[in-house]
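Allow me, if you will, to draw on your knowledge of protein folds for a short while. Thank you for your consideration; the sequence and its tokens are set out here:
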Amino acid sequence: MISYYEGEGDKKMLPEIYYLAGSTYFDLHDSPQALDYYHKVLDNITADEYLRLWGITHAQIGYVMLYQGNYMSAVQHFKESYFVDSLRNDVEGMIYDLRDLGYSYSSTEKLDSAIFYSHRALQLSLKINNSKMANNAMSSLVGIYLDSRFCNVDSVAKYIYPMINDVEPEDRSGVYCVAMKYYMLRNMPDSVNYYIEKIEKYGEVYAKCDAYRIKLEMMLEQKADKNKLKVWRQFLNYSDSIEKITKTEAVSKCQSLYDYTQRVKENTRLKSENEYHKLLLIILGLSAFLLVILFYVYYTKNKYAKEKQQRQMEELQHLLDKSTLQVLNNKKALTRIKESEIYALFLGKIRAGQNVTQEEWDKLDKAVNDYFIDFKLKLYRICKLSDLEYQICLLLKIELSLADIAVLVHREPSTITMSRKRLYKKLFQKEGKAEELDMFIRSV
């Protein structure tokens, strides 16, 4: 599955696949492989894009470091997970992070920090009225009090009774083990044996190991076999020493792997930076070349626009120069067009409030251009007009009123006024009044 997603699969799914692989190896007690895949998760995501995955991956790395005895490294990862859960407002996640921080600190010299974080986990559990998580936090706190070198049985008492009276099935092994140790320290053998039986029935392997060790010690004490008890305790001391040495070696290997991974990442980062600098130089060169091209295009386009504007102005000036000569001719042409059928048709449309068909607009267009030679051509030489703009020009040319024009084009008179102003600016490239457009159209 990993090969598929690394090859042709959806790359967005790859970080999740790496996380599942890491979790699988962690369950198989293969910490180096688990750590390798968890680091691959972090290498392929950012906290901004995958906030939840970023947080739970740091939590899992924290567990790897914790179980390998690298407690301070575990603390750093649990703190990062807590920070993410705070951003996500994931209260249950925050409680687990605080619990894990307390447990990590309990294995160091910082017992005050262990108690502080465990208390915060308990307080937060009670605040949200989650009895299950409260019992979980109490179990962790009790374990710290019992297992630390500052063993404080009295501090345990106020937590142990609520905890053992409300035990979730999945928490039985840990709770019963804590209760067994508590009653052992209180020298209450009947209660100890009661919880040993519970552990024999429901306990996990680590809890059963503690239970049978305590059971054997009690049996040896009851038989008053002091020499055997002494030998047994010496055996435990040496076993603990061997376990510590073995754990130290495992930690060393795991830390070496982690350091190696970090060095590889740093070398990759430096290599990426060099490639980035090379790419940056290429981009800068291309950008400079592109700027030259853009400047040339802008210069050419600007020159063309100025030439076009000059041509428009010349055309307008030409029309204005001819307008004096055309005034008399225009008056005669206007008189004739007002006597035409199309003019009468449009007046009828106005009185009846009827729509003008496209065919009727075409007839008006032809009549105006017959009586006023090249009327449309002269306008379109200056700039291209929309259908509505040209229709307004036709109606202005035959000297219909603003109200009549509004009826024929189905617009408000105020809208026609604004259209005339915009059309004047479009033709003359400057602001002007609607009346100035009317004068120009009638002079063309």
About this structure: The mean pLDDT is 82. Residues 340-443 form one domain. The chain has three domains: 1-225, 226-328, 340-443. The longest helix spans residues 226-338.
